[in-house]
Model the fold of this input.
Amino acid sequence: MGARTPSIRQAAEEFGVSKNTVIEAYDRLVAAGLLAARQGSGFTVTEPPSDVQPVRPSHVAEAVDIATLLRAQLEESFSVRVGDGRPPPSWTEEPEVRRRLGFSRPGSEDGYGSAMGLPELRDEIARSFLAREIRCGPDQVLLTFGANHALDLIVRHFLAPGDVALVDDPGYYPLFAKLKLAQVKIVGVSRTEKGPDLDDLTQKIEAERPKIFFTQSISQNPTGSSTTLASAHALLNIISKRQIIVVQDEPFIDLPDSKGVDLATLDQLQSVITVGTFAKTLSANLRCGYILTRPDIIASLAELKMLTTVNSSGHIERLVHGLLEDGRYRKHLNRLALRIARATENVVENLERRSLELFTTPTGGYYVYLKLPTGIDDIEYAKVAAREGLFIAPGSVFCVDRRSETAGMRVNVARADDIRFYDFLSRTLKL
Done:
């Protein structure tokens, strides 16, 4: 630890590569927390991330101890289960449920299952991230009831009343509600078309000493912006010096050709937690998502999941696994990406024809963010629309303080292909 690496020029000469190649390699090592950049003195080796299990708060440890019988019921194999609190599958309509869902496997899986979630689906998710050059295994995947359940577990685990959390601003407002419920102080980091405003991020970190930063890197909700490679490197460099956890909530991460940079690819899950979901790509009624991060964090979150919800739905997870395993999910994603591209092109054309401005060029996903002319109150504008039967998502709702400097609205391209919407804009904005 602390050893200096060769200078960029020395490394380029030693390895026979260009200086740009060395710079890129050093940037990646900094992002992974293996090197630290020192102003005027090059790069030094940092201490590798600790694999030691973090100490659990006493109240969590006590709760886990109380629930040891539940853990045994979920995870241990017994030939006689006289202490099990559940009826045997033959006493319920489990076989009929399986038949209707198209599952033919019998038997031992008919109970609650492990709090970690279906092993086959966890393995499939881990393999999908390995294909994206993220080193991970199934022990780094925890299945959840969708992204909101995942975020709730993370908030409960990492944050206590009075702690500070940074969030995208504008950002995902249901997360704000969760943080408020946990009595956490919410501090917004301004969002730009290239990702979080890095100057604002640095300033807020120094002023507020947060524990965690919640962001979206790919097709952010509500702005539709994505974090660029340069911004991603700089962001990870900023947070690595201050030991802050980054949680990226990425509902569109599976879409092919999606723009934006997955922070976990650069960080290799040392300081980054990825939250994924199938709700935006398969079905909103399939409450199935996951958390991907270091094994020690996953183990702690699995204990918390066991205490709060016991486990997630094995039937839903098996259904999702079947779609992934036989290739139908990938084919569906290709079709979905094409539909999104066509719908986005149509929406942008209709808005530009009316000389309306977007927050940024669309980067994929369902959302574009429409800026409203100066002087318009987007909350009041949404009320006017509601009286005419139009549901509008005003930009202020997505802001931490509910006051947006630039009034606007989130537009879902999948639902905007309606002449009544464009007529309303033209008439009310006098375009």
Remarks:
- Residues 48-53, 80-86 have pLDDT under 50 and may be disordered.
